[in-house]
Amino acid sequence: xxxxxxxxxxxxxxxxxxxxxxxxxxxxxxxxxxxxxxxxxxxxxxxxxxxxxxxxxxxxxxxxxxxxxxxxxxxxxxxxxxxxxxxxxxxxxxxxxxxxxxxxxxxxxxxxxxxxxxxxxxxxxxxxxxxxxxxxxxxxxxxxxxxxxxxxxxxxxxxxxxxxxxxxxxxxxxxxxxxxxxxxxxxxxxxxxxxxxxxxxxxxxxxxxxxxxxxxxxxxxxxxxxx
Length: 227
Fold this sequence. Notes:
This protein has 227 residues and is α+β, with helices and mostly antiparallel strands. It has a single domain, classed as paralog of FGE (formylglycine-generating enzyme), CATH 3.90.1580. 16% of the residues lie in helices and 12% in strands. The strands form three sheets. A three-stranded antiparallel β-sheet has the order 1-4-8, with helices on one face. A three-stranded mixed β-sheet has the order 6-5-7, with no helix packed on it. The longest helix has 11 residues, at 101-111. The radius of gyration is 17 Å and the shape is globular. The relative contact order is 0.21.
C-alpha cells in the first residue's frame, strides 16, 4: 500500500474511441506543413480507431516529490542526479526523470494504478476530435515546454491542456506507455524539453527509441487507472 502522503490527481476519461496514428490521406499535407519528408510519419501508419472503456489518467506526469515518497517507502531507487533520497528543493514539482519502464511500472503497482496504453494517452489528448496537438491545431510556446534547458514544473502551461483538462501531454517529458513492440522496448509519447521540432510534439507522434531499461533525463511517465 502506498503512503498516505501520496496524492494522485486523476482525470476521468469517459468511454469512447481513440484515433491512433495518422491517416495516410493526411501525410502529404503534414509533411509540407512541417517541412519533413513523408517517411517521417511511417511509424504512425496505419491509423486505427480503438474503442476504450472509461478510465482515469494522471492530470500531470509523476513528479519528483511523488517519486521521493515511493523511495522513502522502500519501493524504488532515487535517480542518481538527486545525490540523496530526495530531489533538490527547486525540482520537487518537476516531472521525475531517469526512470526506466520497469521503474515506472513498479511505482504504478505500488500506487495501485498502472501505466496508460498509447491509445489511452491519445484519447486523453484528442477526445473525439482528430486534433493535431492536445490543445488544437496550432503550436505556440505558451502551450508546450520544449526546446528548453531542462524540465519545468508540471502544469505550468495550462493553455496546453487537452480536451479533458489533462496537462503536459506535449513537451516537458516524453512518457512511457504500457505498449511494448518487444520486451526490450516501449512506446513513449509526447515529446519533451529536448524536442526542437513541433512535428514531434503532435499527438500521433510515436517514439520507439526508448529502450525499456534506459534511464534518461527526458523520459518520465504518468499513471492511469481502470474503472
